[in-house]
Fold these 3 entries.
Entry 1:
Amino acid sequence: QGTKGEGAILVADKGQDMTYYLNMAQALNKQGYSVMIYDLPGQGRSQGAYSTSFYEDNSSAMQVYSAMLAFSQLCKLPPANIHYIGHGYGARAILQACSVDYIDPVSITLINPEISFKSSVLAKLPVIADDTKLEWVKNLGTSISGMDIHIISNPSKFDTSKQLSDIIKTNNNVTLDKDLIIIEPFAPLSKNIINSTVSYLCNLSSFNYQPNLTIIMIYNTMLVAMLVFIFLIAWSFLSSLRYRDKTAGEYKNELSLNFYLYKLMFWVPAAVLGAIGFSIGFLIPIGYPVQAALISFGFGAYGIVMLFMYIYSNFANDAGAGMFKDEQRTNWIGGILCFIALFVMLKMFGHFSLYYMFPFGQRWVWFIVFSVANSITFLIIDREYAVLNADRKSKVKIVLVVLLPFILASILLLIMGIAILAMTLIIAALSIFLTILFGRVLQALDTQIIVAAGLQGIILTMLLLSFGIAIA
């Protein structure tokens, strides 16, 4: 509840943890605004002139209208005194509600609005909408007029946001800001976004605004700590590559070219197995994180294929099932403590958290499934490093074999013009690489191999779920 007779409705992105929006709400409330954080309810795929995801119809716009009615009554505010702030799909819902004349706000702030003005080659799939065919999108230039509109975009969405600004600026007062913090594109609300939004609203309301320097100082401190932590992981990884066991002569062999070619070939049956698992997921009546599922099933299937080849064939000089036993690595407490430290660091940044995609408890099923699948491949990588006596160059090549399919697929998708999916694969490859570095730290701590693989699988699953898109 505020003190100055104005309010703000903050409509969150789909599938977010609402606690990530508290900093924005608190900053607005300190300026005297009454604030409501509204979570758009998950909706299943709808049926219309063409089958797309939930945002084809006006359901989300109606939800924004309902939020306005409840907020207006609870805080005793007239609708004309309410500002709207939307993030992602929330921004889309607010824009749609204005376009179809459900709301007439003081102002709207759109943070990385989830909208596209170009037709996609995937538009016929049941999970992707072609925005260019939606009537309310076609009428944006004329249906919204005389309104103060603030658009904030990160670099990856700036072209789309600029296009939106050009369409609606003829009849409205439009301000377009670009958030230059590239390292946090998936953070719901960065410090820059909070300051920009609150400053914009206070300027319209003639309120005096002073940014919270304490929050900025804490963020910058944690940023430095995170960079130091990443450096230490990389340093530990490089140190582990240089380490030589004097008695066993470890890391002495340069693996043959045929070894890598065969490993690349095994991606073919892995892709088939992963596609089967991915397709089965649609049949289970639980909210389905599509992007995370696609990557986890593919990555996990590769681990399953390699596990089968090592145990039941003479691949890699008949390493056999014995390669998955290591009596020298028995420590597990150190690995778990290292995992907790990493989790806390990522959690403090907000946009790397397993809660990011799980607004409903039953979705923990997918978290467990994906973690187990990803762990298998990390177990394979760990044992290839240790048992095959690979030298430094061979270790790097082993990692490249794992990442190469993601890189090639992302290049192909970019050529086809599907930048969103290409970026997803690039970030997935980066997440896998960073998780492998974390695995080298666990190896240096002599963490038991099953525990180490499990912890790596959990970390990767958190990272994937932090930027995946769910179908509720």
Entry 2:
Amino acid sequence: MGPQPGPGVRHLYTPAALNLDHYARQREETSVRFANIETSFKARMKELLAAQGKAMIFTEDFKNALHLAEDNEEDMGLVREMSRRFNRQHEGLRFGMYIFGPVVMRTYHTLKQPQEALEALHDPELCGFFDQLVSHQVAMDLLYKAERYPQKLKDLTCAHEYAVAVSNRFDVLGALEDPVELWDTFKRETLQAAKECIGELPRARRGFVSTETLENIEESHAAMLAGKQDQHRALSRRTRTLLGRDKKRHVSVMREST
């Protein structure tokens, strides 16, 4: 066991930075909407997966399944199989589709499932599914909180395919037995890997659009494609609000750095 977090300890990322707070709200809303039909919905998803042929996994069904998933073997199996089916049916179509990699990782993070997250990243049937930096950020934070320090990057064997540029330095931690030495080495190696990844100085120009805003834009686009005009208009209004918030934050950060 590594050292236990004390007062004032900060994790790798805040929940807001990983959009976990927004994901939690979506889970609550979905739970209310499906209060009387959750069991039948999950049963229908299992029947769909068991059906032979080309039964499609629809975006909204997948979202609902992720937001309804609980910490049990049956639901984890459903998430795994729906991810595989969705990835297969959209193979080669990476543009204009909803990106589920980060949402699946947030599901594992919320339900404290580090092993499921690692297995998903290794799964050859999910190649390309987690091709987003934020998916790996959520996975790293989950492993960190589970005190799986040596596996944070050692087990992310597909990381190079996604240009997640932090090198495989955490293998050294596996040989350490003393908790203090382990923790000190972890901090030192993390800092060095981060410096090599992004440089010691921030880039002169940085994007100011948050992950929450980008996902809201994706949801709006998906609603438009599905012909859900009311939902599309509501999400578009929210996008404008989020962009305004992101711009203010960006301006504030730039002022502080000059």
Entry 3:
Amino acid sequence: MLRTRRPFIAYIMDAQGNELFR
């Protein structure tokens, strides 16, 4: 993912990923 260009999007996706793994 483009974390440098879209850090906000990456943050949301990471948060959703953490919820799926929980």
